[in-house]
């Protein structure tokens, strides 16, 4: 079990479905790496050639990139930019928002194309949104409320920790 957000929990069944969607996207888009991150920068699942990448930093920086871009969107009157694309000399990164909670990242090179990635991401995002919806329904049926593990920590506790 993993906490997805302050109000959602991923159980093994949902995690397996999410992993399956990512694995299929990885193959169908001919991607190097596919991963799913929450908007806080916590990596939830990944597939691909992960040995050559610091996935923790990549997840965190991706969330920061999305947050910064959300700020830019609001400055010009948009709610958000749901798709971001970064083109490099060798590798490209396609970032999309899924269900307003998650960030789907696809890293690909010349073996694939932006058009193919966009097409495959659209299908995968719809499947992931369905999983999110079912997770929300399951949580509502169980009457679950996830409390943050940091809820009991106060500002005074933090000040005391760093003042020593």
Explained architecture:
This protein has a single domain (2-146), classed as Beta-Lactamase, CATH 3.30.450. Helices cover 46% and strands 23% of the residues. It is built from four helices and seven strands. The protein is an alpha+beta fold. The protein is globular, with a radius of gyration of 17 Å. It has a five-stranded antiparallel beta sheet, sandwiched between helices. It has a two-stranded antiparallel ribbon with strand order 1-2. Helix 1 packs antiparallel against helix 3 (114-142). Strand 6 (92-98) and strand 7 (102-108) form a beta hairpin. Mean pLDDT is 85; it is low at 146-151.
Summarize the structure.
With 164 residues, the protein is an alpha+beta fold. The protein has helices spanning 12-28, 55-75, 114-142, 155-163; strands at 2-5, 8-10, 33-38, 43-48, 83-87, 92-98, 102-108.
Descriptive terms for the model:
7 strands, 164 residues, Beta-Lactamase, 4 helices, globular, alpha+beta
Q: Give the averaged pLDDT, no decimals.
A: 85
CATH topology: Beta-Lactamase
CATH domain class name: Alpha Beta
Number of helical elements: 4
Let me know the largest β-sheet.
5 strands, antiparallel
Which structural class do the helices and strands define? Answer: alpha+beta
CATH evolutionary superfamily: Dynein light chain 2a, cytoplasmic
Q: In terms of topology, how is this protein built?
A:
Layout: E1 2-5, E2 8-10, H1 12-28, E3 33-38, E4 43-48, H2 55-75, E5 83-87, E6 92-98, E7 102-108, H3 114-142, H4 155-163
Helix pairs in contact: 1-3
């Amino acid at each position: 079990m993993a906490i997805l957000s302050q109000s959602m929990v991923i159980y093994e069944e949902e995690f397996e479905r999410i992993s399956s969607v990512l694995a299929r996207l990885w193959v169908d888009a001919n991607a190097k790496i596919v991963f799913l991150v929450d908007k806080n920068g916590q990596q939830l699942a990944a597939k691909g050639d992960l040995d050559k990448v610091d996935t923790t930093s990549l997840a965190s920086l991706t969330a920061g990139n999305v947050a910064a871009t959300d700020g830019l969107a609001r400055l010009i009157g948009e709610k958000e930019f749901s798709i971001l694309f970064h083109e490099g000399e060798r590798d490209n990164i396609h970032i999309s928002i899924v269900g307003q909670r998650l960030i789907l990242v696809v890293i690909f090179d010349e073996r694939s194309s932006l058009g193919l990635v966009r097409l495959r991401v659209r299908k995968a995002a719809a499947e992931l949104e369905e999983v999110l919806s079912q997770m929300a329904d399951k949580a509502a049926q169980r009457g679950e409320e996830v409390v943050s593990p940091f809820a009991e920590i106060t500002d005074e506790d933090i000040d005391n920790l760093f003042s020593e």
